[in-house]
Design brief:
The complex is a heterodimer. Chain A has no helices and eleven strands. In chain A, β5 and β6 form a beta hairpin. The chains are: A mainly beta, B mainly beta. At the A-B interface, β5 and β6 of A face β3, β7 and β8 of B.
Chain lengths: 121, 110
């Protein structure tokens, strides 16, 4: 069974940093592209970032580019999102997602339960 | 990188069909067929319903169908059922390794 378990969320002050982790199991982690998607309280879905299977290709939403860094450790079956210079508008539930197939890099077929990041003083 | 435009809400009676539109630009929806639709029930994680504009993942009922015309994609739910009441989001590749979601549509089953 595919499982994605996010951790690392919490309360952080504006300008602070946080690193989210996503522990993957139930599939060959190194074969799939992975994404981060966020959702502000009461808001819609916002795509954040994507990474390919070996970590050599990444993409970011304009709103987080230069502040967030996606990475992965295939030996540990773990996806990361390093978030720096956090702003109030980054407050959201952050979901880790897995793509639909090893040949795809464009869809989120499996989702974690999400981890809440709150940026506030 | 503006969000794709969706109607705020649509509604229909059980058994009817509803269609949700999602309008982008020639830089995202109009340029690529990497378009998907997600269903989200309150308090739950989203679920992939349609990918590649019109394909259904395993387990998704064939009541759900997708199409595209120019810069607009659409999701049609035929034979509306009570459990279809949820929020729906479109998503498109926007080039340069970026994606953009739609604003979301609440589907109400009357």
């Amino acid at each position: 069974e595919v499982q994605l378990v996010e951790s690392g969320g919490g309360l952080v002050q504006p300008g602070g940093s946080l690193r989210l982790s996503c522990a993957a199991s139930g599939f060959t982690f190194s074969s799939f592209w992975m994404h981060w998607v966020r959702q502000a309280p009461g808001g819609g879905l916002v795509w954040v970032s994507r990474i390919n299977t070996d970590g050599s290709l990444t993409g970011y939403a304009d709103s987080v580019k230069g502040r967030f860094t996606i990475s992965r450790d295939n030996a540990k079956n773990t996806l990361y999102l390093q978030m720096n210079s956090l702003r109030a508008e980054d407050t959201a539930v952050y979901y880790c997602t897995r793509d639909i197939s090893p040949t795809s890099g464009s869809y989120s077929n499996y989702w974690g339960q999400g981890t809440l990041v709150t940026v506030s003083s | 990188q503006s969000a794709l435009t969706q109607p705020r809400s649509v509604s229909g009676s059980p058994g009817q069909s509803v269609t949700i539109s999602c309008t982008g630009t020639s830089s995202d929806v109009g340029a690529y067929n990497y378009v998907s639709w997600y269903q989200q029930h309150p308090g739950k994680a989203p679920k992939l319903m349609i990918f590649d504009v019109s394909k259904r993942p395993s387990g998704v009922p064939d009541r759900f169908s997708g199409s595209k015309s120019g810069n607009t994609v659409s999701l049609t739910i035929s034979g509306l059922q009570a459990e279809d009441e949820a929020d729906y989001y479109c998503c498109s590749y926007a080039g340069s390794h970026r994606f953009v979601f739609g604003t979301g549509t609440k589907v109400t089953v009357l």
